[in-house]
């Protein structure tokens, strides 16, 4: 069942009927809606399609927001930690590449930088 903005033109009584009907519906339902209250009462999982990525969250709308924000914070922490490590390695290479005694270590760290799989800065759609 595909529902696109199902509550847009419904009164409260009809919206309540639709909520009750969908709670007991036995098939799959895809709902596209800006009605957060409706989503919070109906959904049990959300697929967030944002910035070319799809991520599945289990729970109602309120739980989705909490989980999505935690996921974003974790990804941002990972990104910032990697950026600090990149800066540390780049600084070491810059300071030591020309010194004979530390040139080998600087080259090794430069190779580490080249091989490092970079984490993209996490982005979040507007809330």
From TrEMBL:
InterPro entries: ABC_tran_Xtn, ABCF_ATPase, P-loop_NTPase
Keyword Nucleotide-binding applies: yes
Highest taxon, organism lineage: Bacteria
Descriptive protein name: ABC transporter ATP-binding protein
Pfam name, any one: ABC_tran_Xtn
One of the record's GO molecular function terms: ATP binding
Keyword Nucleotide-binding included in the entry's annotation: yes
Domain ABC-transporter extension: residue ranges: 49-122
Keywords on record: ATP-binding, Nucleotide-binding
